[in-house]
Amino acid sequence: MNEIETLLTALYVKIDDELAGPRWLGRPPVLTDSELVCVALAQSLLGFTSETHWLRYVGEHLTGMFPYLPQQPGYNKRLRSALGLVKRVIRMLAKSSDFWLDGCWIVASTLVPCGMSRPTVKRSDMAGWAGYGYCVSHSRFYWGLEAVSGVHSVRDADPVGFGRSEVRRARGAGLDA
Question: pLDDT averaged over the chain?
Fold first, then answer.
């Protein structure tokens, strides 16, 4: 058994213990809710952003663990209807981690481009606030802000406040407005 299968087995057992009974009336589905949530969480944990690629990977490499998986439309439909279960399991996994009791800060930032051209930069009212930076996801330079939001603790899950930080500087780029 490789490391992925060990992880998925432990995850499945924990999820199956949490989701005690079936939520379906009538004939039970071939893929149980515990298996569905386990597959969905494993997709996220292993970094697959495409459902198509993930289902293909599971079909090729994990058929022993999940002998039946629906096609992508059926998987997506079941997963959307099981959103409450997924949230419940994510919260249960968070509670079982050490970070649940820790008073840590979780900070997220969002790049907010305000302009792309030099004339825009010169005439903008954001001159004292914004700066040049590099957006990695779009592979381009921009002039703008980086909005920062923070959550004090995992238990709270409510933003404590929002603020502004310096924009991310590109390596070796000496671009000043």
Answer: 75
Residue 19 has pLDDT above 50, yes or no: yes
Q: Give the pLDDT band (50/70/90) at residue 153.
A: low
Of 95, 5, 84, give the one whose Cα is nearest residue 37: 84
Q: How many CA atoms lie within 13 A of 17 on its CB side?
A: 8
State the Cα–Cα distance between residues 153 and 55, nearest whole angstrom. Answer: 34
Q: How far apart are CA 84 and CA 61, in angstroms?
A: 28
pTM as predicted:
0.58
